[in-house]
Every structure is written in C-alpha cells, then in structure tokens.
Amino acid sequence: MSPRLKTIAGTVARILLIRGRRVMLDADLADLYGVSTTRLNEQVRRNIGRFPADFPFQLSQEEKVEVIANCDNPDRFRFSPSLPGTFTELGVAMLSSVLEE
To answer: For the residues 9-15, what does the mean pLDDT come to?
Structure first.
C-alpha cells in the first residue's frame, strides 16, 4: 500500500460518529495539521466568531468515556482533565482557514 493510501486510511479511521454527526477530535486534527492541540484550540477561541455554533462542540463526560472505550489509542484522552473538542466536516474546513493565518 502506498504511503498516500495509508494516510487517507488513517485519516478516515479518525472520523467518529457522535450525536449523529461525523466528527474528528481536536487532538486528531492537531496531529494532522502538525500543531499542538493547545495551539489548535487557541486559534479556535481567537476566531470563535467565524465558527457557527454547531461546527465545533465539546464532548460531554459521558461521550468522552464512550470515545475512550471505543478508541484505538485512548491514553491521550483517558488521563486528560479536559473534555475533547470535536469538529464537523464544515468545522474542519473553517479550522483550516484559521490555522493558515
């Protein structure tokens, strides 16, 4: 399998179905964009007016527990005191524009 196909397959594997929507976690997106999760969330906070309310959202504690139970690599979430953020497909598109600034 070519490296590009592995990357695409790895990205698709990071898409989760939460609240009936396909989303990606902030940590996974930060990894894909090559920035820290802190930096990614900082840029979102600075540009929150550019994101409609339903594009990014934070998981509830119950949703976090479910993600940990079903995730391939739960350690990065398991011991974090904060709740992960998620982004819908349109939220990811908006995120890419604010990270490029």
So the answer is: 79
Q: What does residue 25 show for φ and ψ, rounded to 5 degrees? A: -75, 150
Query: Secondary structure of the chain: what % helix, strand, coil (to 5)?
Result: 55, 15, 30
Q: Tokens 């350690």: give the residue.
A: 75
- Are 13 and 73 in contact by the 8 Å Cβ rule? The answer is no
Give the pLDDT confidence of 52-65 residue by residue, as tens digits: 877 888 899 999 88
Phi (first) and psi of residue 28, to 5 degrees: -65, -40
The SS3 assignment for 20 reads coil
Amino acid at 86: T
CA distances from 29 to 1, 36, 39 (A): 23, 9, 11
Structure token pair of residue 12: 């698709």
Beta bridge partners of 86: 25, 57
